[in-house]
Specification:
InterPro entries: MFS, MFS_dom, MFS_trans_sf, Sugar_transporter_CS. It is a multi-pass membrane protein. It is found in: Membrane. The chain is mainly α and 449 residues long. It has two domains: 18-199, Growth Hormone, Chain: A (Up-down Bundle); 240-435 and 442-449, Growth Hormone, Chain: A (Up-down Bundle), CATH 1.20.1250.20. The chain is 77% helix and 1% strand. It contains 17 helices and two strands. The protein has helices at residues 6-11, 17-37, 39-51, 59-83, 85-103, 109-137, 140-151, 153-172, 174-195, 200-205, 210-219, 246-276, 281-309, 311-333, 340-368, 374-400, 405-426; strands spanning 4-5, 228-229. The protein has a two-stranded parallel sheet.
Length: 449
């Protein structure tokens, strides 16, 4: 019997219980990651009251968390490519779980800032390895939807975390939120040690014995026994800036930078914008939930569209729709007498477009970067994006303090969407439409979908 391409052995599988259990396990990891990312924001008011500080005192804490995640995505991605998705992902979960629990012991801003940076390293390392593992295990027919589930895990974790923290912190104090946010990942890591499989595609690329790969594929319902051919090497020495990937890597960096700048500007400042428009505080906070929910729901619809028309057309068209949604929402905010429901409709349209762009970019990154540098490539893209998030955290606040600051804020996000579309146009390894004929070599041949 001839050698079997390991990618074909995975793609030919029918999605079954093994795949859904794996997706549920990795999805739970990212849910907890999303919960822990926003822990400082949930606990912030109680910390300020407990330590008798002004709100500006938490600025370095928030920045440190973002900086830690930026380093963590890059470092964690490289660890995943070198040592495996499974150990990198388990290590990341143990890391952010343990350090989150230690944060409950903090008694000043300095220690809190340091621990949020350290926790951010683990939080950042989880996402690229989770995305790569799911992309490499899921059959072709379910892959994009599965990556979308992973992509929306972070905002869903934030939504669930907000609901839990809203009663936990008033009842038991802010340290309880960090204790819970740390204990749950540590408990989940015990399940991961038993149930989380390594990527068979990565094992084939690293020359693992055929029986080991065959036993993994058999768990997923496959019958291939090997020998297995790894995907062709695209990135020599695993370099994301090598000749074959340079253009796409630069484009992904630009797109992620612009996307996370826009996303974090909205996530950070929507309650403030709604409060200025006359919304009471509870309604302003619900506006943030509407923003997130609209983005999550639309992401699945756009994944369906990507499969039919390709990633380039879908992402660029969504960016253009995002600019229109921003203009519509800005007009409503600046029109006297506009009803609150109309303003919230503008929030929903903005979330449906701008937030879903980040989900599609993460799915695209899993396609752009080949197995030998997939975690590193995804990690690089997200790390560059974190820089955009850090910039937006400070830049948006400065703009809103200026005359006509609200219009400048919307102009900043609109400019980011223009840059995002430009970065996506630069990428030359897009996901093709489902009806397109397959390229002669799926790892080597880019397409212009």
């Amino acid at each position: 019997m001839g050698a079997v391409p390991v990618q074909d052995a995975i793609d030919d599988l029918a999605p079954r219980a093994f795949h859904w259990r794996l997706l549920a396990l990795v999805g739970a990891i990212i849910l907890l990651d999303g919960f822990d990312i926003q822990l400082a924001a949930f606990a912030g008011p109680a910390i300020l009251a407990d330590w008798k500080l002004g709100s500006a005192a938490l600025a370095p804490v928030m920045a440190a968390s973002l900086a830690g995640m930026a380093f963590g995505t890059s470092i964690g991605g490289r660890i995943g490519d070198r040592f495996g998705r499974r150990p990198a992902l388990i290590g990341a979960v143990v890391w952010f779980g343990a350090t989150a629990m230690l944060t409950a012991l903090c008694r000043d801003v300095t220690s809190l800032t340091a621990l949020r940076f350290i926790t951010g390293l683990g939080l950042g390392a989880a996402v690229p390895n989770a995305t790569a593992l799911i992309a490499e295990w899921m059959p072709a027919r379910a892959r994009n939807y599965a990556v979308t589930v992973i992509s929306v895990g972070v905002p869903c974790g934030g939504i669930i975390g907000a609901a839990i923290a809203s009663w936990l912190i008033p009842a038991y104090g802010w340290p309880a939120a960090f204790l819970l946010g740390g204990a749950l990942p540590l408990l989940l890591s015990l399940v991961m040690l038993r149930a989380l499989p390594e990527s068979p595609i990565l094992l084939a690329q690293r020359g693992a014995p055929a029986p080991r790969i065959a036993s993994l594929i058999a768990r997923a319902g496959g019958t291939a026994t090997g020998p297995f051919l790894p995907p062709p090497v695209v990135a020599e020495s695993g370099r994301v800036f090598g000749p074959a990937l340079r253009r796409s890597t630069i484009g992904m960096g630009i797109a992620f930078f612009a996307s996370l700048m826009a996303v974090y500007a909205l996530l950070s400042w929507v309650p403030v914008l709604l409060s200025k428009a006359g919304f009471p505080m509870d309604a302003a906070i619900r506006g943030s939930m509407i923003l997130n929910l609209a983005g999550v729901a639309t992401s699945f619809l756009l994944t369906w569209i990507v499969l039919r028309v390709g990633s380039r057309v879908t992402i660029v068209a969504t960016a253009i729709a995002g600019m229109a949604a921003l203009a519509f929402w800005a007009m409503l905010l600046h029109t006297p007498g506009t009803s609150p429901l109309a303003i919230l409709a503008g929030v929903a349209l903005t979330g449906a477009t701008v937030l879903s762009l980040q989900v599609m970019l993460l799915a695209l990154s899993a396609h752009v970067f080949p197995v030998e540098c997939r975690s590193a490539g995804i990690g690089y893209s997200i790390s560059i994006g974190r820089l955009g998030a850090i910039l937006s955290a400070f830049g948006a606040g400065v703009l809103l303090g200026l005359p006509q600051g609200t219009l400048l804020f919307f102009a900043m996000i609109g400019t980011a969407l223009v840059a995002l579309a430009g970065g996506v146009m630069l990428v030359d390894r897009h996901m093709p439409p489902r009806h397109a004929p397959p390229a002669p070599n799926k790892e080597l041949a880019p397409n212009d979908a």
